[in-house]
Amino acid sequence: MRRSESGLSVAVQTAAMIVITVAIAGAIVALWRPWETGSQVQAGDISYVMQNVHEAVLRREGSVQPHFSLTVYPLKETHKVEIEWNGNRMPVMVSVSTIEYHGDKMRLPGVYFLDKGSVDVLGTYIADRKRNYTVNGVDTVSYVEYDEKGMKYVVKALPYVNVAVDRVYHDVVVNVMIRFVVLAPYPLNAMEFPDSVKRGYTIGAGQMITLRMNNTYRFYMQQPESVGGGTLRLYFDGEPILNAQNEALEVRTTEHTIVRVFVDMVVLNVWGR
């Protein structure tokens, strides 16, 4: 009987140790879980805010109040669109503006990346730094870039290029539309604007960021008229612009043709308060 009691005592002690071990492990998990939860909340907040910024840039208006700072780069990139008509090229310089979040590396919900050096954007547009333009009218993309320790969430306003062929009486009219957005933290004629172009402009955490379209500046140009028609081609940074079938965008005519070029610079003011 004593041996039985002794065996039972050992079993009880073992069970008690297991319960205590599980309790300690549970306590450790409970202490660690708030940090994990906080990180998930932060990642979700960043993703949510930046998607709202994306929509505001796309709509040309909106407000958002993030708990982190954002940097606006009015002139992040410059590119050249060329309109070639019968061998003569007309260059048009366009700019690319961005709104960026810089922070520690973390996995963001709803935003995906491919491999190191490549990024996947919201939607279907792949921003591989080779085709930084769009011909389908959607001129805002968002993506995340990761390095060894940090990450950069970018909302980018892309140039928009479109070609439309029309007929006015007996003439063929080819209209080329080029549009790009400038995210300007200051009016274009303000003294602070040139410096913001060089270094960017940071809006502090907790400020209400407002985006509103200020104005659209339209520039009009016309290529020399051609009695016998000709061939129109478009280039972006020296590379042919492609159509939806991934073929070089090209317009050929054999009639009296007028080529008109419209360039719209959309100024979207961005400020925090």
Overview of the structural elements:
The chain has helices spanning 2-59, 193-199; strands spanning 61-64, 70-85, 88-104, 140-146, 150-157, 160-168, 171-184, 201-203, 209-222, 230-236, 239-240, 250-253, 257-272. The strands form two sheets. Strands 2, 3, 4, 5, 8, 10, 11 and 12 form an eight-stranded antiparallel sheet that branches. Strands 1-9-13-7-6 form a five-stranded mixed sheet, covered by helices on one side. The model is unreliable at 1-6, 28-36 and 113-132 (pLDDT under 50). It is α+β, with helices and mostly antiparallel strands and 273 residues long. It is built from two helices and 13 strands, in the order H-E-E-E-E-E-E-E-H-E-E-E-E-E-E. The protein is 24% helix and 44% strand.
- The percentage helix is 10-25%
Q: Would you report the number of β strands?
A: 13
Secondary structure tally, helices? 2
Order of helices and strands: HEEEEEEEHEEEEEE
The largest β sheet comes out as: 8 strands, antiparallel
Strand residue content: 35-45%
- What structural class results from the helix and strand content? alpha+beta
What overall geometry do the principal axes of the alpha carbons give? elongated
Can you tell me the residue ranges where pLDDT is under 50 for at least 5 consecutive residues? 1-6, 28-36, 113-132
The N- and C-terminal alpha carbons lie at a distance of 82 Å
- Rg of Cα set: 28 Å
Overall mean pLDDT: 79
